[in-house]
């Protein structure tokens, strides 16, 4: 009987120790001040050269060349007063395509593209709290492309068609608005708890950290996660050394054996979950201009060696004015559950002045979207998600246009997934998705569709 008492005492202490973590409120965690810049250069080269030999047909060869050059920039900042992120990209693409029959060219196509895109989104909380905020987000997209095609219309090269098209697109966009509330990322706090929990289960801690110490660990996790490194292996080494140094400085560990480091590495590598907290209501007004300049030239040489040239220059000018109202909400329920809710209403007015696309016309649109569900995080291996969603859309076209019809559409669906880790030998997963679509336009046509799909898998290692 005396041997049973220590067992129950240990069980009692373990239960209330873990209860201390279960009572940690993720919704109270605030991400520390973070600023991150990242600039990456990428170059890719692809070449494909093929030759075909056949006794019954002329020799045939193909040559393809694709080159891509890209420069990407990203910026993230989080402070009590500001939540912002920025992006920018500069890219060029060159594609060459050649096709020959014997030594005679049949196809000669060239494509060149230059694209620039940059913008940022910034929320400012004037009173340094989580209440009212102002939002603005400018964005600029510029694209310039040239496409040259040369086709030989018969085997003897008697007729050649040359086609050249240049597109220049200029799209400035501005979002201005504001709202109430704030959403915080709490994944780092959850990972910190995973680290401490696993070390405690394996008896690698001198004591359990209190709530303030847990927040210190979570803040260090956030800082490490946002460090900029150029080598993934060096990054991981630095992260392990930094966490180990912090835990030792806090006098939480004393025996830094291999079991301690394997636990620390496992929870750092696989203890990440997408966790958020907070509610935000946001209203924005969006203005966008879309200019497109198109220059086309077609030259055809016929059998009598005469040439026919057709040139066409067009300019498109489109305006888009939108109003949007969005509600986003995340609610942590303990450490293992998370509830989410998204609702969005958008009204748009499009003005089209198109010389290229005869089907373009002015129209108004309205849409509403809602999504609600739960995420379950049992541990780092077992998780599940279930949600419902719906969407309504309406398009109203200019009354003078006869080539488009006003329309209404409705969509609703449910989805769920489960990945369950029973043991190292037995694992299972399940997916389900069901939705209903309804579409109607002003010429009294209807389209209804119901879909249901599911999948399941079971993996058992026999030996």
TrEMBL record:
Q: Where is the signal peptide?
A: 1-19
Keyword line:
Signal
Q: What is this protein called?
A: Outer membrane protein beta-barrel domain-containing protein
Q: What is the lineage of its organism?
A: Bacteria, Pseudomonadati, Bacteroidota, Bacteroidia, Marinilabiliales
């Amino acid at each position: 009987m005396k041997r049973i008492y220590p067992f129950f005492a240990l069980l009692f202490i373990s239960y209330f120790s873990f209860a201390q973590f279960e009572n940690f409120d993720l919704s109270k965690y605030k991400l520390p001040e973070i600023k991150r810049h990242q600039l990456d250069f990428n170059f890719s080269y692809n070449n494909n050269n093929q030759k075909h030999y056949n006794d019954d047909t002329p020799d045939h060869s193909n040559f393809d060349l694709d080159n891509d050059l890209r420069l990407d920039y990203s910026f993230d900042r989080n402070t009590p007063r500001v939540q912002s992120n920025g992006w920018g990209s500069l890219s060029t693409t060159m594609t060459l395509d050649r096709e020959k029959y014997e030594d005679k060219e049949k196809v000669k196509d060239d494509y060149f593209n230059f694209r620039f895109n940059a913008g940022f989104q910034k929320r400012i909380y004037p009173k340094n709290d989580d209440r009212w905020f102002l939002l603005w987000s400018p964005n600029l997209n510029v694209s310039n492309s040239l496409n040259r095609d040369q086709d030989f219309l018969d085997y003897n090269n008697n007729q050649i068609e040359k086609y050249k098209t240049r597109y220049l697109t200029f799209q400035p966009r501005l979002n201005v608005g504001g709202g109430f509330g704030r959403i915080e990322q709490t994944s780092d706090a959850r990972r910190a708890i995973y680290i401490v929990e696993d070390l405690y289960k394996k008896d690698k801690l001198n004591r359990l950290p209190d709530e303030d110490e847990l927040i210190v660990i979570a803040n260090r996790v956030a800082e490490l996660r946002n460090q900029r490194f150029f080598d993934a292996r060096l990054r991981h080494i630095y992260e392990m050394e930094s966490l180990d140094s912090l835990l030792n400085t806090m006098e939480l560990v004393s025996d830094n054996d291999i079991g301690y480091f394997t636990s620390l590495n496992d929870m750092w590598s696989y203890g990440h979950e997408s966790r958020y907290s907070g509610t935000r209501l946001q209203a924005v007004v969006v203005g966008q201009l879309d200019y497109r300049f198109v220059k086309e030239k077609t030259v055809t040489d016929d059998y009598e060696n005469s040439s026919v040239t057709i040139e066409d220059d067009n300019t498109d000018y489109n305006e888009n004015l939108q109003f949007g109202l969005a509600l986003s909400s995340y609610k942590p329920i303990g450490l293992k559950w998370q509830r989410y809710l998204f609702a969005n209403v958008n009204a748009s007015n499009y003005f089209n002045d198109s010389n290229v696309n005869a089907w373009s016309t002015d129209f108004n649109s309205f849409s509403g979207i809602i999504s609600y569900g739960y995420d379950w995080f049992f541990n780092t291996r077992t998780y599940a998600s279930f949600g419902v969603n719906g969407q309504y859309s309406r398009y109203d076209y200019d009354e003078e246009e006869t080539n488009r019809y006003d329309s209404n559409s409705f969509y609703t669906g449910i989805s769920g997934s489960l990945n369950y880790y029973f043991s190292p030998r037995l694992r299972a997963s399940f997916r389900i998705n069901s939705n209903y679509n309804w579409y109607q336009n002003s010429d009294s046509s209807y389209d209804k569709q119901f879909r249901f799909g599911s999948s399941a898998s079971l993996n058992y290692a026999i030996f």
